[in-house]
């Protein structure tokens, strides 16, 4: 592993820890965006350009913006996320994370290492993926787009309703 990838991996772990460790939701959202960015850097450093740029476009672009809109439109100024020992579900989250980490480590450890055959024609694979997404899977993609749009509209309506309640009192 090159030093640049190692630094990016360390920054990814710090950003991911910050996304679950900060008390303010907006800091959590920005930390999550940073972890998406460092993960894309890791993909690009491992010569997985398609996945890296997809990570940037989809997660860093669309998902982060949706999370930030949701946090900003539905936020209350005095709200903080409960963290620490008294946080509800703290043990459950740590337990599930530990089990997931152990399972992934075992799978990686048991995977045979060796020289992989290079992909013969990567261009045609990406072309086939694009053709599949815009022909056979167009309905699920449009459904996801409608769900994200309705979630954003719902957040705006909730924010408008809360601001109207504050003005009346």
Task: Briefly summarize what is shown.
This protein has 6 helices and no strands. By secondary structure, it is mainly alpha-helical. It has a single domain (3-81, 122-168), classed as Four Helix Bundle (Hemerythrin (Met), subunit A).
CATH class: Mainly Alpha
Cα separation of the termini: 59 Å
Number of helices: 6
CATH topology tier name: Four Helix Bundle (Hemerythrin (Met), subunit A)
Largest sheet: none
Helix content: over 70%
Number of strands: 0
The CATH superfamily is identified as NADH-ubiquinone/plastoquinone oxidoreductase chain 6, subunit NuoJ
The CATH architecture comes to Up-down Bundle
Silhouette: globular
Summed up, the domain count is 1
Overall SS class: mainly alpha
What would you note in describing this structure?
This protein is an all-alpha fold and 169 residues long. The protein has one domain (3-81, 122-168): Up-down Bundle (Four Helix Bundle (Hemerythrin (Met), subunit A)). It is 77% helix and 0% strand. It is built from 6 helices and no strands. It has helices at residues 3-21, 25-45, 49-74, 90-110, 122-133, 138-168. Helix 1 runs antiparallel to helix 2 (25-45) and helix 2 (25-45) packs antiparallel against helix 3. The longest helix has 31 residues, at 138-168. It is globular and about 70 Å long. The N and C termini lie far apart (59 Å).
């Amino acid at each position: 592993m090159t030093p640049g990838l190692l630094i990016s991996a360390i920054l990814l772990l710090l950003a991911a820890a910050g996304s679950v460790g900060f008390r303010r939701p907006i800091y959590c959202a920005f930390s999550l965006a940073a972890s998406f960015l460092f993960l894309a850097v890791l993909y690009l450093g491992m010569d997985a350009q398609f996945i890296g740029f997809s990570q940037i476009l989809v997660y860093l672009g669309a998902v982060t913006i949706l999370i930030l809109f949701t946090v900003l439109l539905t936020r209350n100024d005095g709200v903080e996320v409960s963290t620490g020992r008294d946080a509800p579900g703290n043990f459950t989250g740590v337990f599930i994370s530990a089990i997931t980490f152990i399972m992934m480590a075992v799978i990686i450890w048991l995977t045979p290492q060796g020289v992989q055959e290079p992909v013969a024609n990567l261009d045609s694979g990406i072309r086939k993926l694009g053709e599949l997404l815009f022909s056979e899977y167009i309905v699920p993609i449009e459904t996801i787009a409608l769900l994200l749009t309705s979630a954003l509209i719902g957040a705006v309506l909730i924010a408008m309703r809360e601001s109207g309640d504050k003005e009346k009192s």
